[in-house]
Amino acid sequence: MGKNLLILGAFVSVLMLASCTGGRKETVTYTPEEIADAGQVMKYYDTSLALLKNMVKERDVNAVLGYMEQKTEVPMFSYIMSPIVSKKDSAAVMLPGEYLGEDVRQNLIQNYAELFQSRNQFYANFNKYLSLLKEKKTEGMTDLLNDNYELSVVMSECKQNIFDILSPIALNAQRVLLAENPVKEQIIAMKSMSTTMQSIINLYARKHVEDKSRLDLKIMELRLQLDAAEKLPVVKGHEEESEKFKDFLSKTEGFLKIVQDARQKNSYADEDFEEISSYGLGIICLLYTSDAADE
To answer: What is the pLDDT of residue 67?
Structure first.
């Protein structure tokens, strides 16, 4: 039920964004407290994105599962290992502040706790599998593999839940912080689309247990976001930002085509995931690199 509500909430949010684009502009004044809270929200959001990016790497998870499926000793890629996660960031995401609200805090804590536990168990199972392999024992290997199939889905689901919980809240916080910025709608549109691209990468990575309906919903969400963004007017005096925005939209259109072509096959393929992941993360990295340069 909670998952369905998150999906519905995300869909309603993007429909509202699409319907509001192009409407009359209003000057909104925010209090110092609202601005401070918005800053805290974005700090938590940015910490979460950085943590999730390093903590659950879809390519690594699928590499572990692929290695375990062999059930025999084969050359191992050097990147198959438990990723290092900042203890400071781990502690920070487990202690969200009052600026997020009680229900949101509890949902985040619950999802992060389950994510940490699942991740630890996933790599513990992998280490146990490697021990059995070294001892040339096969008993228990299948159980470890099946357990890791389930844990990979749990990790992906928790990660997606966190995206879905934080995205609309971060969107509102960005509106507060960018209230005086003449190109705020373009900035918010790009960051919203980048989060949706991250969700699509996360959902497509479910090699063994696909969630096609949720993936299709995110693809539809990105299409609506892109259509709404394309209707935003050019801001006079900000031609450089406008060109970057147009380039971002063009690259996002390319990402959508890659994803839709992959979905038409109606089955997971490693080469499709590599293309989706590399192309999408390239767009996202360019956006956040640009943000860092502007600060």
So the answer is: 87
